[in-house]
Design brief:
The chain is built from ten helices and 16 strands. By secondary structure, the protein is an alpha/beta fold. It has two domains: 63 residues, Phospho-2-dehydro-3-deoxyheptonate aldolase, domain 1 (Alpha-Beta Plaits, 2-Layer Sandwich), CATH 3.30.70; 255 residues, Aldolase class I (TIM Barrel, Alpha-Beta Barrel), CATH 3.20.20.70. Helix 3 runs parallel beside helix 10 and helix 9 runs parallel beside helix 10. The mean pLDDT is 95. The structure holds phosphoenolpyruvate and manganese (II) ion.
């Protein structure tokens, strides 16, 4: 149930509603907007209805949310898009996030050269994994702390906020030391204890769709982060497993309008991991923008042929400027601008 407070409701009135919701064993999530305060009451809907909050001091009206996810639902924000602010850059609404960088941090020269090129092209944020979820335990697993250090140096050099993956809770503090956005990879979308902890950390999160997760399961996973009071969540379509074998994963671009209909959270598309080959990345990027995505996260490398992982799909930095120009053009057509600091 969502409780919409009156314009000008006092702190005491909000606190009293929260108290009454908690008294019946439900949890209350207060979301203060510029004008309105909303209280999401999570738990037994009938019990909340029985509280008779309609008419209580400061309460305007109640909106029942029938969906299994509440805080992520579009109704929770009265139909409005959430606009996240990440290190001075907005994401959502008309602000499009162009996130780019290598699959993984390999060494100082590679990371700084890639970061510099991505910044010059006008990207919003820089990506790069220091902890890598690899299919084979014998493959390169990432540089770990040294990778984080190189990301921090890249940020210092370019000013770009950093998006980097957290694989394991034991690395949370180290990752928090550099990440402006914590990426939760496809393989961890249903690692619920990890989701709750990143929720508690309060740091913005990019939550990738699991390899075989439905749109609703992705939304439910986001709820684990939101319920900890962390409102800064972006959802990411990155391709799912289907019967098709002609490419690595099926990039489900219809997830974009499907998600935008159901949630206020920004929706990002990863056009790199599904095709797994760079010559298809441009068309999938442009299609994602046209489909209404709020951003894309794309793999870019200064020397892709030498890349340790995902070599075949990374776009060379020498071609990224041209790709960015096309992305900007399509973004303009759908009424968005690339977000910059
Ligand atoms: C990545 O972005 O580097 C990555 C590993 O993605 P995913 O979790 O979608 O496979
Ligand atoms: Mn990759």
């Amino acid at each position: 149930m969502m409780i919409v407070m009156k314009e000008g409701a006092t702190e005491d009135e909000v606190a009293r509603v929260v108290e009454r919701v908690e008294e019946i064993g439900c949890s209350a999530h207060v979301s203060k907007g510029e004008i309105l305060t909303l209280i999401g009451a999570i738990g037994n809907r009938e019990k909340v209805a029985d509280l008779g909050l309609e008419g209580a001091p400061g309460v305007d009206h109640l909106v029942p949310i029938a969906k299994p996810y509440k805080l992520a639902s579009r109704e929770f924000r009265k139909g409005e898009d959430s606009v996240l602010e990440i290190d001075g850059r907005e994401v959502g609404g008309t602000k499009f996030a162009l996130i780019a960088g290598p699959c993984t941090v390999e060494n100082r020269d590679q990371m700084l050269a890639s970061a510099e090129a991505v910044a010059t092209a006008g990207a919003t944020m820089l990506r790069g994994g220091a902890y890598k979820p690899r299919t084979s335990p014998y493959s390169f697993q990432g540089l770990g702390r040294e990778g984080l250090r190189l990301l921090a140096e890249s940020k210092q050099q370019t000013g770009l906020p950093i998006v980097t993956e957290l694989l394991d809770l034991r690395d949370l503090d180290d990752v928090l030391g550099v990440a402006d956005v914590i990426q939760i990879g496809a393989r961890n979308m249903q690692n619920y204890s990890l989701l709750s902890e990143v929720g508690k950390s309060g740091r913005p999160v990019l939550l990738k769709r699991g390899l075989s997760a439905t749109v609703e399961e992705l939304l439910m996973a986001s709820e684990y982060i939101l319920k900890e009071g962390n409102e800064d969540v972006m959802l990411c379509e990155r391709g799912i497993r289907t019967y098709e074998t002609a490419y690595r994963f099926t990039l489900d671009l219809m997830a974009v309008p499907a998600l935008k209909e159901q949630t206020h959270l920004p929706v990002i598309v990863d056009p790199s991991h599904a095709p797994g080959r760079r010559d298809w990345v441009e068309s999938m990027s442009l299609a994602a923008v046209a489909a209404g995505a709020d951003g894309i996260i794309i793999e870019v490398h200064n020397e892709p042929e030498k890349a340790i992982c995902d070599a075949a799909q990374q776009v060379p930095t020498s071609e990224f400027g041209e790709l960015t120009a096309k992305i900007k053009a399509i973004a303009g057509i759908v009424g968005k601008t690339i977000s910059r600091g």
